[in-house]
Amino acid sequence: MLEIKDLHVNYGKVEAVRGVGMSVDPGRVTLVLGANGAGKTTTLRAVTGLHPPASGQVLLDGERLERHPAHRVVRRGVVLVPEGRRVFAPLSVYENLLLGSYTAARSTFAEGLEQVYTMFPVLKKRRDSAAGLLSGGEQQMLAFGRAFLARPRYMLLDEPSMGLAPAMVESVLSSVRVLADAGIGILMVEQNAETGMDVADEVVAMARGEVVYSGPVTDARSNASVLRAFLGEA
Ligand code: ATP
Q1: What ipTM describes this predicted complex?
Q2: Which of 45, 131, 133, 234 suits a disulfide with 228, CB 3.0-4.6 Å?
């Protein structure tokens, strides 16, 4: 289990995250909702060692992660797929995937690559195309595939549907479920609440740096405070 406990993160005097707790199990999707500035990205950055927290704990199967630098967090099996995909546009799909595997054992690349091609057949079809020529949705799948090749146990996804054509949102969020079904625990920040909830197991809503709701997706759909947090009114 990946667990965040009483996390506080500051930018100078700004307390961006104040006492946040949430968790995710292998094979499950925890969806994090909240208005702009609620502290969602900051939480993901603190978990992955990109911004050290002021206090609190990040536990990976009970082992504390929050003081580890980012590269060590990746090696422990927790990877971040940041907002904006950031694929290497001039490189081929295959080359992008190869780069994703640099922290993993070489022997696992071929097997991992086959898994990625099975999960996302479009990447196999376009393996020799420059990544920059893919659609936004395909680039997002490439970003997922590249992260998968680091052989993570947990993936943190920051707004995977950002900037995608509406028709692609559903297919990208379905691929999130595919990753979870491969056994990965997913902590996903996503503005598309409805489509996000279609693939989530648990929902956490944040407002102004705090968790205002946390519970199973079935309850979240009928809970007004989730919606208010999402709309920025909580
Ligand atoms: P968004 O959906 O806009 O990304 P978010 O919920 O991810 O929102 P954060 O980006 O985590 O929110 O921001 C939380 C708070 O921290 C905001 O008040 C923001 O202005 C502030 N903040 C974020 N990054 C920095 C930074 N580098 N320096 C100073 N303040 C920051």
Answers
A1: 0.91
A2: 234
DSSP three-state, residue 122 = helix
pLDDT digit string (tens) for 20-46?
999 999 999 999 998 888 999 999 999
The two tokens of residue 215 are 């519970």
pTM: 0.91
Q: Which atom of ligand 1 is nearest to the CA of 38?
A: 6
Ligand 1: list residues with CB < 6 Å: 11, 14, 16, 34, 36-42
Q: Ligand 1 centroid to 36 CA: how many Å? A: 8
Residue 234's pLDDT is 42
The three state secondary structure string of 25-81 is: CCCCEEEEEECCCCCHHHHHHHHCCCCCCCEEEEEECCEECCCCCHHHHHHHCEEEE
